[in-house]
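Justification of resources, computational component.

The compute hours requested in this renewal are based largely on the per-chain cost of generating structure records like the one below. Each record pairs the submitted sequence with a full structure-token output. That output is archived, and it is also reused by downstream analysis tasks.
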Amino acid sequence: MPRVKYRDADVDMMARMMRAEAEGEGKQGMLYVGNVIVNRLVSNCLDFKDLRTIEDVIYQVQGGNYSFEAVQKGNLFYQRARSTEKKLAQQTLDYWREHPGKYALWYFNPYGPCPLTWYGQPFTGQFKNHCFYEPVADTCEGVYT
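The structure output for this chain reads:
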């Protein structure tokens, strides 16, 4: 049973986002990005309430900007999805979750050391250039189920 309901169009969109956000970090880095997308969908907490689809997550606007920079600026996001990324996206939608992104709702590339917290949320680990942060447990139980 997949982690979330999805359509072929969701696999395609997620594959494009995973590539745009983490192509330089290889397959593993792209899987972590996909995991954050799925976590945001299942969490239903904090900044991610009432998101019902992968499309809702990817095109979410916060503070006047898209949550994912690649939607606004990334030319890779607007290119066709490749079969490699589609397989990774489907893997993430179906079952894949690993530390440090297992419960993460946020990641970013600080161009320096990862801060211990980001907007009050604890640092869970780093993969190459991306730092991952998961919500404080009592504020976001949905991501931990």
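The beta strands are 61-62, 65-66, 106-108, 117-118, 121-127, 130-133. The CA atoms of residues 23 and 30 lie 6 Å apart.
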